[in-house]
């Protein structure tokens, strides 16, 4: 479905606003980044990220997956009980 030429031209203000918002987000998000970090800071950052990911996995993801498995098994068992004579 082709848009008329006048409809395409009206999107220019939207594009301008989106470019301004993008530039503002990049400026705000990267203004406090120090690219000249020491190797110790980088190593510690990597270690803490790995620790955090492991903690989230052990604390939330693995228990949620196990609970989901048991819920599916329970639903399968209930369906099989309901369909048997």
Report what the structure shows.
The protein has 85 residues and is mostly helical. The chain contains three helices and no strands.
Short précis:
The chain has helices at residues 5-9, 12-30, 39-83.
Which labels suit this protein?
85 residues, mainly alpha, flat
* Average of pLDDT: 86
Low-confidence stretches: none
The dominant shape is: flat
Computed structural class: mainly alpha
Tell me what portion of residues adopts beta-strand conformation.
Answer: under 5%
Annotate the secondary structure layout.
Layout: H1 5-9, H2 12-30, H3 39-83
